Amino acid sequence: MLEPGTLWTRIQDQTQKALDCGALQPIETTYEVVEEAEISFLVRILANLRRKDKAQKEEGQKKSQTGKDFDPFLPYDPDVFVADFSETHVGLLNKFNVVDNHLLIVTREFEEQDSLLTIADFEAMWIALREIDGLAFYNGGRDAGASQRHKHLQLVPFPLIPNGLNVPIEPAIASAIFSDEIGTIPQFEFEHGLLRFPTDQITAPKEAAKGSLDGYLKLLEVLDIGFDSAGNPARPYNFLATRNWMLIVSRSREKFEQISVNSLGFAGALLVRNSEQMERLKQHRPLNLLKSVACPRKLSPSSDGNRLFDAFDK
User: Fold this and answer.
1) Residue pair 195/246 in contact by the 8 Å Cβ criterion
2) Nearest-5° angle of CA 140, CA 216, CA 224?
3) What is the DSSP letter of 156?
4) Which of 158, 192, 208, 265 would bridge with 261, disulfide CB 3.0–4.6 Å?
5) What are phi and psi of 127, to 5 degrees?
């Protein structure tokens, strides 16, 4: 299993090996910063998607031949293997990474991507966060931006904005209004919930996992996401976590005008395929885009915390 203090070195070493043998195929991007409501949204523009599009086409061909979805994690490519996190999870490099050192936290056995996060998932997450200060996230279902059915969390190191804030929504997090430990972000006019973590849990992944699972289940309940007959969340959602907080956003759909949004979008990091999509995003504004793919917010504290208001009643 992963020896404490070695994950960053393992990622660096394996990244070089994977680049040398062609297993890692980074996607080049340029980026712009779009300011809105004191949030510096990082918007990346994809420069070349040919390799990823080709891989997805090959996956589709394999599915039509076998009648089964292709699973890139079972078995996983040994050339992108980074570490064994636990008896239930491994760490892999993201083969088509947009961000450097993008880590996938993958279940050894197949589980559906829209299934409930477990204490084992949270323990693996905290093992990674103990080693790397970054943003962990989970796309809970296809309509939340998941591209693979096999269950996996993800971790990208800070800072998300090159030479800037660790995470673009830091000012929004700082302005959150809390009631009964659940926070809401005034700029987020859609259904979401925020919880702060204790500051001393980073060194104890097992204990941190227990508290995180409790908070996660509490947020799912508060957001009325509900459960299906198998006990899994009944609606898609995005889960984001740092060493200091967790955020869950209820989702209504995956895309706005062909612009896909996953968990990183709600951290303030968006991705567009071309300059035309960039212009549509600028015209519509990032917060409106996020609002259009999330569930409508019901009642939330006002900025002074003394009354309730309808977020859509301007």
Assistant:
1) yes
2) 75
3) E
4) 265
5) -60, -40
> pLDDT tens for residues 266-307?
999 999 999 999 999 999 999 999 999 999 987 544 444 333
Q: How far apart are CA 170 and CA 156, in angstroms?
A: 16
Task: Please report, for residues 43, 77, 107, the alpha-carbon distance to residue 90 in angstroms, rounded to integers and kept in the order given.
Answer: 30, 12, 7
Helix (H, G, I), strand (E, B) or coil at 295: coil
Which residues make Cβ contacts (< 8 Å) with residue 24, sequence separation at least 6? 15, 18, 79, 80, 93, 95, 97
Terminal alpha carbon distance of the chain: 54
Q: Is a pLDDT exceeding 80 seen at residue 226?
A: yes
- How distant, in Å, are the alpha carbons of 152, 232, 307 from that of 195? 22, 21, 21
- CA-CA distance, 299 to 150, in Å (whole number)? 35
Query: Residue 139: exposed, middle, or buried by beta-carbon count in 10 A (0-12, 13-18, 19+)?
Result: buried
Q: How confident is the model over 20-57, as pLDDT tens digits?
A: 999 999 999 999 999 999 999 999 999 865 555 565 56
Q: Write out the two tokens for 62.
A: 């394999």
Residue 166: CB atoms within 10 Å: 17
> Is the Cα dihedral 234, 235, 239, 245 positive or negative?
negative
Exposure of 7 by Cβ count < 10 A (0-12 exposed, 13-18 middle, 19+ buried)?
buried
CA dist., res. 91 & res. 109, Å (int): 13
